[in-house]
Write a structure and sequence with these properties.
This protein is mainly α and 988 residues long. Among the domains are: 143 residues, no CATH class; 82 residues, no CATH class; 205 residues, Beta Polymerase, domain 2 (2-Layer Sandwich), CATH 3.30.460.10; 152 residues, Nucleotidyltransferases  domain 2 (Four Helix Bundle (Hemerythrin (Met), subunit A), Up-down Bundle), CATH 1.20.120. The protein contains 41 helices and twelve strands. It is elongated and about 125 Å long. Belongs to the GlnE family. One of its GO terms (molecular function) is [glutamate-ammonia-ligase] adenylyltransferase activity. It comes from Mycolicibacterium arenosum.
């Protein structure tokens, strides 16, 4: 090493060079870089991705070279290309710097006119080392050094542009060369493995190694698992041992070799014959396995056998989109990919995050699988090549293909730089506050200040831009060609995307009626003027969101109907265009529910509440009590009862749409949904009763007060979407009017209320059921308070007492309603408790209900109301406990099933774990019952079998995914456990 000089001419300061290490000046002096001759070297050092790291590595290398440093020093002064390669590597890769320090003479590989060796040259070099007679340990180290030397040369050429104005290596060149190195390494490992297993005269097996994944597509990362599949002429012990030894040696010397993509995965045989592979893929393989085979390539080993493997399996790949399970399996795979990344890491994940590499690869591969069956030009393995073919074939706009390719290569460049640093497999960007790491990454990725931002700012802006572009094009990639195929082709659109091709794509994306879907698209995009233009902009993204719902066909039809219905509302499409949250939520609702779209057609203003406000979703800004007062006030402005009811219906419709939308979007817990629905019903009853009384008030004033008593789930404040309103009407004479006069007038009022509310309309029905009154449908519709008292004192049956447990005043004269409740308290909460005979009668009636009330053909295991562990089971159990204990536990004087269960737990009337089972079953059955109405659009209690409807019910019930099978398994498990508690209580 040259002796340092003490005089420092006009050299740049360490600060200007970007050196911040306290020992930087001393390190420069040790290298002798302190004269005018070194100014150019110093500026080159300053351009390294991390100048301090590069300088430290140079000092270490100089120490290792000793007298040999002078040769390198002179070469650096003269050879700009060497300078760029060496300083680029030292500033970007700690691992390769360590390799150079350990093997200092390897710097010569970066000097002079350096080019990348061909695949044949690499194979020859690795094979020569593998065939040497060295012992196993030295052989491994020799191959390790050769592998690192080849990576060093590639990285030097790849990183040189960060320091000097050297040519930039194209991404396909880097990925292909890394795959060539991997092939050479696998070939060497196969030689070593064959020697190890067959060294004693055992014939070498005929075996081929099929490269998969990025290696198979020749777009490998610097650090990656190499996925392989083994095929042998004879899948015997020798072949299996050779394959196992290859994996062991290659994983120890080069990179992890993963054979998990083989048939049956890690549980399957490591080696199979070609016939066995073919048989498996013909009979058992899942869609994702064919998608993996898109990138299969015969890499090393027996070339003829490898070719036979590819020739036999590739035809199956290109027909896999015709499989019956293609759509659900692709959707399931996509969900798995998304679920692999914790929500907090998605913005940093280059591979699996939103707008990341997987978005590009998934979209490209799906398009290949759909259209490659009829277009051989798409039958390529590389993502970049596939994008070019999709653009050339008209399946994707040429500009979009070019832009997506650029984004993909940018993200892969960042991935490569992150991996090069320590030669570790990673796809994770540094955290936002790790500015030095991000600044290093920006410089390593050839980024320079642009006048507005420093390199770090450029990186952040570029990441934001590229991620957004990938997300946007990911949607457009599927759907824009569909729109173009039903309208006038765009300037750069090739008509190769025929209607048939569009139908295939729609089918692959989950649309069961692709011809109808194309008809809807044609109608939507055919709108004249600005409306059609906005639809062209919106539909690619809307269609993607619809394809993620359980029923995209119904969702698209509902969207078309909504657009037709709201054609005169200019705000509608503008809101969808400008408010992404509104559009996405609306598509989720339309693709899941038949109940809500019908409401939105007549209450479109609710769509505006899908937006987020300052305090959260606007759907939650409405208080049910405020809405109830508004409904009653709106109806009260009309003298005619029919018009009053119409006004009430309008607000009810709006409120039902709001509640159901918030429910479907996971914003409201089921308890709040039930309370809100009850509040709507109570307000409608109050409005209807008041309007009819106003219209039927005689000149001398009303002859009676009327109160409406809510029964069943209305009285319990736990109504569902499909619930009727069970009520009792009670009256009381006014001003000494005769009971007969008061009752007759009240009956007329109650009858008119029921008929007005029951008038058919386009809204969900308003059925009022008064059959729980004394003597049922044969009894008087309205009784006086004294008549009720006399009847219950003398004639009340156990089931009527049980029904009164849920009686609560809901409308009309509240004082009269309160006195009614006080009267029936003596009936439903008798001071001595329920008699043994009454309990026996309740058991008998319950047994009869279980045996006779279930509809013919219904499955008792999945009927949410009357089935095993369903709502009736839980509610009857709670009511039996109330009858037994309410006389001594005042807290049980409660009409709510859930609140009563809380009391049962607090007072330890049942073990806490049993109460938890009952509560879980009630909530599960209520969610399921509500979801059935939301999905089907009409009241029903029977869960469907496996299929699209069950998937939609699962999602609507808040299961967290549209996996109907998992949802149903959970329902059966929860209700089965609850039924055991029900039996225990009834048998006690």
């Amino acid at each position: 090493m040259p002796k340092p000089v003490t005089q420092r001419p006009t050299l740049p300061s360490v600060g200007r060079l970007g050196l911040v290490d306290a020992h930087a000046r001393a390190d420069l002096d040790r290298l002798g870089w302190n004269s005018d001759d070194h100014v150019e070297l110093l500026w080159s050092l300053s351009r390294a991705p991390d100048a301090d790291t590069a300088l430290k590595a140079l000092v270490r290398l100089a120490d290792e070279l000793g007298d040999g440093w002078d040769e390198l020093h002179r070469a650096l002064l003269k050879d700009k290309a060497l300078r760029g390669r060496l300083l680029g590597v030292f500033g970007a890769s700690l691992a390769l710097a360590d390799h150079l320090v350990a093997h200092p003479q390897s710097w010569h590989l970066l000097a002079g006119n350096v080019g990348l060796p061909s695949a044949e040259e690499l194979r020859r070099d690795f094979t020569a080392v593998a065939q040497s007679a060295a012992d196993a340990t030295s052989l491994k180290f020799s191959l390790q050094q050769l592998n690192r030397d080849r990576l060093l040369v590639l990285a030097g050429l790849d990183l040189a542009p960060t320091v000097e104005n050297e040519p930039v290596l194209a991404f396909p060149t880097v990925g292909a060369h890394l795959a060539d190195i991997a092939d050479a390494a696998l070939a060497a490992a196969l030689i070593v493995a064959t020697k190890t297993v067959c060294g004693d005269g055992v014939p070498a097996p005929r075996i081929a190694v099929i490269a998969m994944g990025k290696c198979g597509a020749r777009e490998l990362n610097y650090v990656s698992d190499v996925d392989v599949i083994f095929v042998a002429e004879n899948a015997d012990t020798v072949s299996t041992r050779v394959a196992g030894e290859l994996i062991r040696f290659a994983s120890d010397a080069f990179f992890e070799v993963d054979a998990a993509l083989r048939p049956e995965g890690k549980q399957g045989a490591l080696v199979r014959t070609l016939e066995s592979h073919v048989a498996y893929y013909e009979r058992w393989a899942k869609t994702w396995e064919f998608q993996a085979l898109l990138k299969a390539r015969a890499a090393v080993g027996d070339a003829e056998l490898g070719k036979q493997y590819i020739d036999a399996l590739m035809p199956m790949v290109w027909t896999s989109s015709e499989r019956e399970d293609f759509v659900p399996e692709v959707q399931a795979m996509r969900r798995r990919v998304e679920e692999l990344v914790p929500a907090g890491d998605r913005a940093r994940e280059l591979k699996l995050g939103t707008g990341g590499l997987r978005d590009v690869e998934f979209a490209v591969q799906l398009l290949q699988l759909v259209h490659g069956r009829t277009d051989p030009s798409l039958q390529v393995a590389s993502t970049v090549d596939a994008l070019a073919a999709l653009g050339a074939g008209g399946y994707v706009g040429r500009d979009d293909a070019a832009n997506l390719t650029a984004s993909y290569e940018f993200l892969r460049l960042l991935e490569h730089r992150l991996q090069l640093q320590r030669l570790k497999r990673t796809h994770m960007l540094p955290k936002a506050d790790e500015e030095e790491q991000l600044r290093w990454l920006a410089r390593a990725a050839h980024m320079r200040p642009d006048g507005q931002h420093d390199a770090l700012g450029v990186l952040r802006e570029e990441l934001k831009r590229q991620s957004h572009r990938v997300s946007r094009l990911h949607a457009k990639l599927f759907y824009q060609p569909l729109l173009e195929s039903v309208g006038s082709p765009a300037a750069d659109f090739d008509p190769a995307m025929s209607p048939k091709a569009a139908e295939r794509l729609l089918a692959a994306l989950g649309y069961e009626g692709p011809q109808s879907a194309l008809t809807h698209l044609a109608a939507l995009t055919a709108a004249s003027g600005r409306r059609g233009t906005v639809q062209q902009v919106l539909l690619p993204t809307l269609l993607e969101w619809l394809s993620e719902t359980p029923d995209p066909d119904a969702g698209l039809l509902a969207y078309r109907k909504l657009c037709d219905e709201l054609d005169d509302l200019r705000w509608f499409l503008a809101t969808l265009r400008d408010e992404g949250a509104v559009a996405k939520r609306l598509m989720q609702v339309l693709g899941t529910s038949a109940y809500v779209p019908a409401l939105l057609m007549r209450a479109p203003e609710v769509i505006q509440q899908y937006a987020d406000g300052p305090q959260g979703p606007k759907l939650l800004e409405v208080e049910p009590e405020v809405m109830a007062r508004a409904l009653v006030a709106s109806a009260g402005r009309h003298a005619d009862p029919a018009r009053a009811i119409a006004a009430a219906r309008t607000l009810r419709r709006r409120e039902l749409a709001r509640i159901a939308s918030a429910d479907l979007l996971g914003m409201l817990p089921v308890e709040d949904v039930c309370r809100a629905l009850t509040s709507v019903w109570v307000a409608v009853l109050e409005a209807a009763l008041a309007s009819v009384i106003r219209a039927n008030t005689p000149e001398g004033g009303v002859p009676a007060r009327i109160a409406v008593i809510g029964m069943g789930r209305l009285g319990g404040g736990e109504l569902g979407y499909g619930s009727d309103a069970d009520v009792l009407f009670v009256c009381e004479p006014v001003d000494d009017a005769p009971d007969s006069t008061a009752t007759k007038w009240a009956v007329g009022v109650a009858d008119q209320v029921i008929k007005l509310l029951g008038t058919p309309s386009g809204d969900p029905p308003l059925e009022v059921d008064a059959s729980l009154r004394p003597e049922g449908r044969s009894g008087s519709l309205v009784r006086t308070l004294d008549s009720y008292a006399a009847y219950y004192a003398k004639w009340a049956q156990p089931w009527e007492v049980q029904a009164l447990l849920r009686a609560h005043r809901v409308a009309g004269d509240l004082d009269l309603g309160e006195r009614f409740l006080l009267m029936v308290d003596d009936v439903r909460y008798p001071s001595g408790g329920v008699s043994a005979q009454a309990v026996q009668e309740i058991r008998r009636v319950k047994a009869r209900v279980d045996a006779e009330r279930l509809p013919r053909g219904a499955d008792p295991n999945t009927h949410t109301k009357l089935g095993r562990g369903g709502l009736a089971d839980i509610e009857w159990t709670v009511q039996l406990l109330q009858l037994r204990y309410a006389h001594s536990v005042p807290e049980l004087h409660n009409t709510s099933t859930l609140q009563s269960l809380n009391v049962v737990a607090d007072r330890e009337l049942l073990p806490a774990d049993e109460v938890a089972l009952l509560r879980d079953a009630w909530l599960t059955a209520t969610r399921a019952r509500n979801a059935l109405v939301l999905v089907k659009g009409k009241p029903t209690d029977q869960l469907p079998g496996p299929g699209r409807t069950l998937n939609a019910v699962a999602l609507a019930a808040g299961w967290g995914s549209d996996d109907g099978g998992e949802f149903l398994d959970n329902y059966l498990r929860v209700t089965r456990r609850a039924k055991a508690v029900v039996r225990k209580v009834f048998e006690a």
